[in-house]
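Annex B. Sample input.
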Amino acid sequence: MTTAYLFHDDSILLMERSLQRTFLPGLWVGVGGHVEPGEYAHLMASCLREIAEETGLCPEDISDLRLRYILLRQRGNGLRQHFVYFGTASTAHVVHRQMNYASLGSGVGGYLLLAATEMSESRR
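Annex B, continued. Sample output.
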């Protein structure tokens, strides 16, 4: 898996996981998805592909994308690897093919550009 946390000005782009997902349903997370077979030698390219598929943002819209964390999660007898990137988006315009913004917060999955001030206010 790859995940990218993309910042634009003082905001971060987050994706809401569908309530139908078995792992972390309804949680707001970074943008990402599965690494395809043959992509493990090019993890950043896999991350950029997932960003483009999920948001419509092109590699030219992303700068300073860097691998920050590698997480390991045990599943059965195996280990799952999760590669976490941080970067900057040059635009706040995100295209999502599968939903409209009216469904944000509905648990069906969506996107939100959340300002840092909103994150601190939501913790109160």
